[in-house]
Amino acid sequence: MDFIQLFAPFKLILNISGFWPQKNPKPIVEVRKVFTLLVNLFFCLSLSIQCLFLRSQIEEFLDVLTVITPPVAYLFKQIVFFGHSGAFLTLMDFLKDDDLVSIPLQLRKQISDSLQVAKIIGVGYQACCTMTILFIVIWPMFTEHQLPVQFTLFDLGDFYAFMYLLQIFALANAAANSSSLDLIALTLMCIVKGQICVLNDKIRSLGEINASKGHGAQRVKYVSGCVLHHTKIIELVALIENVYSQIVLIEYLTSMVVICNIGFQLVIVELASFAFLLMLTFLVTMLCQLGMYCWFGNEIMLHSAAIRDACYESDWIHSCPQVRKMLLMIMERSKRPLYLTAGKFSILSLNSFTSVIHSAYSFFALMQRMYGKSTTF
Predict the structure, then answer these.
(1) Cα 290 versus chain centre, distance
(2) How many domains does the chain have?
(3) What's the pLDDT tens digit per position in 126-144?
(4) How does DSSP assign 308-363, residue by residue?
(5) For residues 59, 367, 43 and 279, what is the CA-based torsion angle, rounded to 10 degrees?
(6) Please, are residues 200 and 303 in contact by the beta-carbon 8 Å criterion?
(7) In a 3-state reduction of DSSP, which class is residue 77?
(8) Which ranges of the chain does DSSP label H, i.e. alpha helix?
């Protein structure tokens, strides 16, 4: 199977801004990269200053903070991803390894099913991102705001159109590139999950190999291939962890801040308003983003833990001692399930998802209490 072609759409998007890693990038690619970085930097810096000026006006402050937090997070993700360009290229080359791509035809459905799920979720996630950006862009049409993101540091005058276009470009670029990075991670995790499912089925199919006298070498060769396949999967997870660990940590922190702010704003805005629709769409997008990482990280843990069960379910009892020893090696290693982390601080799982939501709710409750006291006085 050719896994590299799965990343073609994301490569196209990241190439437009010059951030798809290349060994020898052309000068025009470097120009696009610097231009995109400077635009995002200017956008984030100007609106961060705006936040400082609005810190005494809680509702306006949260409006700006909620919208600019994802672009600021993307800026950091961009820098981290650029810093791991070499590791990412190594990861892409590793996906061409014969032990990963040489999958028996009867087992390819495991990979296909996993990737199909990733495709459906990816389309839904990108649709949420597109709707959120669209609602932010048309925000001034339904409110008294002049720009998608409030900017009152000085009178724009003749620069109004420039600032409007700058905000649209920066928001759209951040959404497109950030979602592409997320979907690359999603695809990689689905590949890992599919590879583990293939390995489990291969181990369970040991009984189909003739174990009679004179044919024992076939089983030894077959299980040796399973051991090698398991080793390659472990290496693949380590490579993904190296590239994405810090990026996922940024996602965790971003999700906590944005979900908390959106929850607070949903309480104070009118139910039948455009602001409520925008915030609700934004909330769904952030939950989907965080949920993708945690769900598929959890799937990797569960399926890797099932490798030991697959060894028990194989025809080990009728195998030679050499085969049994190799199966024992696989079982011992599978006692430590494979997993990905957020900056080495938290394992990607459904438990970590609920922890982030719980933390966001705690901050939300604190903000609501403080807001109630401020409005009382």
Answers:
(1) 7
(2) 1
(3) 888 888 888 888 877 777 7
(4) HHHHHHSSGGGS-HHHHHHHHHHHHHHTS----EETTTEE-SHHHHHHHHHHHHHH
(5) -70
(6) yes
(7) helix
(8) 8-16, 27-53, 58-83, 85-94, 98-101, 108-137, 139-142, 160-204, 216-268, 274-313, 321-334, 350-376
Measured in residues, the chain has a length of: 377
- Contacts of 275 by beta carbon, 8 Å cutoff, 6+ apart: 143, 265, 269
* Burial letters 195-210, b for 16+ CB under 10 A, else e: bbbbbbebbbbbeebe
d(CA 195, CA 31): 39
Dist CA 303 CA 294 (whole Å)? 14
DSSP designation for 209: S
Q: Which tens digits make up the pLDDT trace of 9-66?
A: 888 888 888 888 888 878 888 888 888 888 888 888 877 777 777 666 666 666 677 7
The residues of the chain scoring below 70 in pLDDT are 1, 54-63, 152-154, 156, 209-216, 367-368, 370-377
Q: Which two tokens stand for residue 297?
A: 């990280």
- What does each C-alpha distance from 88 to 19, 107, 131, 244 come to in angstroms? 12, 27, 30, 9
State the Cα–Cα distance between residues 132 and 138, nearest whole angstrom.
10
What number of CA atoms fall less than 13 Å from residue 333's CA on the CB side? 18
What lies within 8 Å, CB to CB, of 132 at 6+ separation is: 175, 278, 281, 282, 285
Q: At what angle do helices 274-313 and 321-334 cross, to 10 degrees?
A: 150
DSSP per position, 164-177: HHHHHHHHHHHHHH
Any idea which residue has 């159109």 for tokens? Answer: 161
**Sign of the torsion angle spanned by Cα atoms 83, 87, 93, 94:** negative
Side-chain half-sphere of 145: how many Cα atoms within 13 Å? Answer: 19
Q: Which domain holds residue 110?
A: 4-376
